[in-house]
Write a structure and sequence with these properties.
The complex is a heterodimer of chains A (107) and B (121). By secondary structure, chain A is an all-beta fold. Chain A has no helices and 11 strands. In chain A, strands 2, 4, 5, 6, 9, 10 and 11 form a 7-stranded mixed sheet that branches. A 4-stranded antiparallel sheet of chain A has the order 1-3-8-7, with no helix packed on it. Helix content of chain B is 0%, strand content 46%. The chains are: A mainly beta (107), B mainly beta (121).
């Protein structure tokens, strides 16, 4: 099983801020990483796959980078609709596993 | 529009059984592998089970192996999860989620809206 450490668990930020969320793997996974956004009471929605490929329809202020064991999700200019919880997920090996989540809250 | 709609959740006693369904529309269901992912109240996401497009390959998380059974009916565009010997720790929202590519290792997109399973006496 590949373990994932996502940080921080809670991030307080203001509209317009640049936000960076980190995801570290217990072993290398090449670029087999996805990022999701989840709002309260809703299902997760795919933001990024293959570490840096933006899902169709996702705003360009979201970007992903990294390979191997260290990955980041960056929101370049936080908007009000971006306050949510974000999860990383590795799909390099079975079982697929998720990070613990990062809640982005209003500062 | 690609859509997944879960149903079948509810309150069940420990040791009981429940069968979840996921109705797919807007895409060729028989061409895609599918998954169940769950989320306990206030907790993170946990992958539960995988089934390939033809049902030839099936995987389970260790936490549900031997108790849950995934299946699908491609003629009915439906995915199922039979849950037996339910435990308190199975309480969660259960999502069905499509695997977007033909490879086994995949991200999940899209997700259904989820169905809540509560195991309690």
């Amino acid at each position: 099983v590949i373990w994932m450490t996502q940080s921080p668990s809670l991030l307080s930020a203001s509209t317009g801020d640049r936000v960076i969320i980190s995801c570290r793997m217990s072993q290398g996974i090449s670029s087999y990483l996805a990022w999701y956004q989840q709002k309260p009471g809703k299902a997760p929605e795919l933001l990024i796959y293959a570490a840096s490929t933006l899902q169709s329809g996702v705003p360009s202020r979201f970007s992903g980078s990294g390979s191997g064991t260290d990955f980041t999700l960056t929101i370049s200019c936080l908007q009000s609709e971006d306050f949510a919880t974000y999860y990383c997920q590795q799909y390099y090996s079975f079982p697929p596993t998720f990070g613990q989540g990062t809640k982005v809250e209003i500062k | 529009e690609v859509q997944l709609v879960e149903s079948g959740g509810g309150l069940v006693q420990p040791g009981g059984s429940l069968r979840l369904s996921c109705a797919a529309s807007g895409f060729t269901f028989s061409s895609y592998s599918m998954n169940w992912v769950r989320q306990a109240p206030g907790k993170g996401l946990e992958w539960v089970s995988y089934i390939s497009s033809s049902s030839s390959t099936i995987y389970y998380a260790d936490s549900v192996k031997g108790r849950f059974t995934i299946s699908r009916d491609n003629a009915k565009n439906s995915l199922y999860l039979q849950m037996n010997s339910l435990r308190d720790e199975d309480t969660a929202v259960y999502y069905c989620a499509r695997a977007p590519t033909i490879t086994m290792n995949n991200w999940f997109d899209p997700w259904g809206q989820g169905t809540l399973v509560t195991v309690s006496s």
